[in-house]
Each structure stands twice: as C-alpha cells, then as structure tokens.
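Record type: monomer structure entry
Structure origin: computed from sequence
Chain ID: A
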Amino acid sequence: MTPVLVAASAYGADLVRRVGHADLVHMVAGAGAAGLEIRRELFAGEGTEDLPALRALLEQHKLFSVYSAPFELFGADGKFDREQIAMAMEEAEQVGARYLKVSLGHFSAASDLPKLLRYLSNAPTEVLLENDQTPQGGRLEPIVSFLSLCTGNGVSFGMTFDMGNWRWNGIDPELAARTLAPHIRYVHCKGVREDKGKLKAVPLQPQDADWQSLFGYFPKGIMRAIEFPLVGADLEEVTRRHVAMLATV
C-alpha cells in the first residue's frame, strides 16, 4: 500500500498545541495512515513534548514519523547553522523519525557546503530539504544549485516536494517537479487558492487532475502526506477519506 502520512498541522495549530501530538496518534492510525509528521513549531510553549514516549506510542500503533523542524540549513549570514540543525537532529533521533525535514535558508556560493556535508555524513537521521514559502527557501534556482553541488560532492540529497508552496514564489509546480524529480523522496500534498489577496492552503479535490499529474514525475509509490486543513465533526472519518484518496494516486 502507498504510504500516506498526516502532517499534524493539518488539524490546526490551536488544536495540536492544546492536546499534543500524542493525542493524534490513535486517530491517525484509525484512519489508515502509515505515519505522522511531527511539527516542532506546534509544541506547546517553549519546550518539547516527551519524544521517547511519543516514539513508543507510534510504534505501538505501527506508525512511523517524519520530524519537521522550522529551521534553515543556512542562516541569514549564509553559514551552516550547525547548532539548530544538531538540536533538531537529536530530537528526530529521540522520536525515531525516518527523516528530518528542514528548509534551505540563505544558501549562496559563499556558503560552507563541505562543512554541512561532513556533518550530515555522520548524522543518524537522513535530512530532507523542503521548498518552503520564503524567498530564500522556496525559489527553484537556489534549490537546484544546492542539490547540484551536493551531487557534485558525491552526496545524493533528498527533497520533500511541497506541491503548494511553489505558488508563494510564483513557480509552476510542474516545472519544479520535472526539474527536481531525481531528488524527491516525500511529497507534501495540498491545494492553494487566493482569498482576499492572500494565498491559503486548501484540501485537494479528487476531480482535479493538475495535482495528480505531478505524481507522474515521482517514483511510483512515493511517500506522501496530507498537509491541507482537515476539518469536520468526525476528524477520523475526514482523515480516512483523504488518506484513501491519496493512496490511490
């Protein structure tokens, strides 16, 4: 079966911060999902959740996880932000995540790429680069440049392809999918529409062929996640319906 995860953010920041990620596990498992994407930015307060306990709960329900941290590989000064990435890596290891997901940040020709690659060569959890909504981390050219340089250094760096985030930088998702296809390991699924002059994430519609056509560029059976709002009186049933939809693409 095609692995479909649910990003915790799909249930809304307020709910997740109030109840915690552990409270979502039973519902996600009951909906037939393969895993949960844990969102560090949704931890309550300034601390973290009990990650070893969350790992045990996920394993009990036969789910795996991806750990998403709102950190950039390269800070505003263009340097590899080892301190933040190391903290996120330790947390990802505690929860037993399959991947650690971060964004590119302020990468340039002056950035110390070898320092990053040396660090990652000994990392316990594989890092995936996600295209975010920022000018520095969501444009195609810097991402292509970074990935090409990694390949030239003998490192096959994987990507989380967020099909909706490209819209924030005016990029055609199909062009991005075609260009980045060899690097894509994981897909964030969401629609985007404009509302009062602002872009917002919306649920994907099964009759819309545009988003489904993107999967023609990805490896068959690629891991994908719901990252659009899940709303309804019965959240488990709503989740189950969308998990089933994404599993068939």
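Annotation 1: The beta strands are 4-7, 35-39, 64-74, 99-105, 126-130, 158-162, 184-189, 191-195, 198-202, 223-226.
Annotation 2: Residues 12 and 213 are 28 Å apart (CA to CA).
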